[in-house]
Specification:
Strand content of chain B: 25-35%
Helix content of chain A: 25-40%
Structural class of chain A: alpha+beta
Helix content of chain B: 25-40%
Largest interface: A-B, 38 and 34 residues
Order of helices and strands of chain A: EEHEEEHHHH
Radius of gyration of chain A: 16 Å
Order of helices and strands of chain B: EHEHEEEHHHHHEEHEEEEEEEHHH
Structural class of chain B: alpha+beta
Radius of gyration of chain B: 19 Å
Distance between the termini of chain A: 53 Å
Shape of chain B: globular
Largest sheet of chain B: 5 strands, antiparallel
Strand order of the largest sheet of chain A: 2-1-5-3-4
Largest sheet of chain A: 5 strands, mixed
Oligomer: heterodimer
Number of strands of chain A: 5
Shape of chain A: globular
Chain lengths: 159, 299
């Protein structure tokens, strides 16, 4: 039975009709047209579908859309500010941390939440924090470099 | 709408409740209801079991079921407390840190932000990472039903792989951990193929409290029996000994290995698991005997 709910995504309110079993991942992509969030394994193992829900990164394939109602959601589309890419996005490009790009939105959202909680993480803290995001292309090194570099860049910007 | 990788069409209704009473009422009055919190195990189970129609009652909004608080008896951890919050909690001090350690190695960051301790226990995987630490802390569980509240030892809660003594009309509401001596130590070692996202092949939780009159050891094992277990024979050997030395630790470790009933599965063979119970138990006992409370090295 369909129900209308309100999803707050990237600081915008979206009224949307959902079935009880509809997953947040699918509602974002199919009903809100926000296809930046990717579908990987569908079982919470690969992290491609990662979004930030209520301030914490979660695998949206394991979140029912109705459970996410009225909670702030941030997707990769919400990273840019006034047409400018987020420092993380800029860093990923600079470091060559994007190959096919499929894992990238998930990587960015998890990385952003790590830096939000911990602006100066150690390499180990980044690796542990990112462990739920898989990449089949890059071998991870440049992704880790890009994240650590961003923390340095953002630290400089706040001085 | 395009189909997801797995079809959740069996979920015919979803309802958020604000109180335990409402949750129990829903379980009682409606057909085919299941309680959902984090959903990280349940949603996968529903899709793989090709369940018939099901109504989900979301209990994450029930205040009584959330949060960690200090009571006059010890610590009360609400069933819907997320793994991530348990991992980061500064109320888990001393030997209780091993519960934080267990919670911190469940899945991944994303999973830990959804998964709850109640779900971990009710899913009752023999390898559940919070189980061995809680058993070693002599934890109890609080269960609500229309008939009232019952509190039982965690050891009596698990009855088989994926099976608990929870009845259809009951909800696990909290985990209760009794106060431990300030000088007690606890450690949880998770032995798994990878550093994240893996189920344990072997889980060992060891506890030690030294007193003037002697010492108390507790030892719990996960992933090596139909349920998480206490290695009570090994404990008896340790607790009856006058002096703790390397020889005693080795003997206890071998006894723990004998007490385990591991199986061959996709993750490891029974033989390997039994050997690793012995190795990791010895390692864990050495650490807690020396007063260590945190695993300092990942295997």
């Amino acid at each position: 039975m369909e129900k209308e709910i309100r999803l707050r995504v990237n600081d915008k309110e979206y009224p949307v009709r959902v079935e009880p079993g509809d997953l947040l991942m699918d509602v974002l992509r199919e009903k809100l047209g926000l296809t930046g969030t990717k579908k990987g394994c569908g079982t919470g193992d690969c992290g491609a579908c990662t979004v930030i829900l209520d301030g914490r990164p979660v695998t949206s394939c394991l979140v029912l859309a109705q459970a996410a109602e009225d909670k702030p959601i941030q997707t990769v589309e919400g990273l840019e500010r006034n047409g400018e890419l987020h420092p993380l996005q800029q860093s990923f490009i600079k470091h060559g941390a994007v190959q096919c790009g499929y894992c990238t939105p998930g990587m960015l959202m998890t990385a952003k939440s790590i830096l939000d909680q911990n602006p100066n993480p150690t390499e180990m803290e980044v690796r542990t924090g990112m462990a739920g995001n898989l990449c089949r292309c890059t071998g991870y090194v440049k992704i880790i470099d890009a994240i650590l570099d961003t923390s340095r860049v953002m630290a400089k910007e706040t001085l | 709408m395009a189909e997801s990788y797995y079809c959740m069409g069996m979920i015919t209704a979803y309802r958020k409740v604000n109180s335990i009473t409402d949750a129990l009422l829903a379980l009682d009055q409606l057909e085919n209801t299941r309680v959902i919190a984090g959903g990280t195990d349940l949603l996968l189970k529903l899709s793989s079991d090709l369940s018939p129609s099901i109504i989900l009652i979301d209990i994450t909004g029930v205040k009584q079921l959330g949060g960690i608080e200090v009571t006059d008896k010890g610590l009360r951890i609400g069933a819907t407390t997320r793994m991530g919050d348990i991992a980061r909690s500064n109320l888990l001090t001393g030997s209780l840190k091993m519960l934080a350690q267990g919670a911190s190695v469940v899945g991944s960051t994303q999973i830990r932000n959804l998964a709850t301790i109640g779900g971990n226990l009710c899913n009752a995987s023999p390898s559940a990472d919070t189980a061995a630490p809680l058993l070693a802390l002599d934890a109890k569980v609080e269960i609500h039903s229309p008939k009232g509240i019952r509190i039982i030892n965690l050891g009596d809660f698990f009855i088989g792989p994926g099976q608990t003594s929870l009845a259809r009309d009951e909800i696990l509401s909290a985990v209760l951990i009794p106060f431990q001596p300030n000088n007690a130590s606890g450690i949880y070692i998770k032995h798994a193929a990878r550093g994240a996202m893996c189920l344990a092949m072997v889980g060992v939780a060891a506890y030690c409290a030294h007193k003037d009159s002697g010492h108390v050891f507790r030892l719990a094992l996960s992933a090596v029996a139909p349920t998480p277990i206490r290695a009570s024979k090994a404990e008896r050997l340790l607790n009856q000994a006058a002096k703790v030395d390397e020889q005693l630790i080795q003997k206890a470790a071998e006894l723990a290995a004998k007490e385990s009933e591991p199986i061959n599965d996709v993750r490891a063979s029974a033989k390997y698991r039994r050997e690793m119970v012995s190795q990791l138990t010895a390692r864990a006992l050495r650490e807690v005997d020396a007063g260590q409370s945190v695993v300092t090295k990942r295997i």
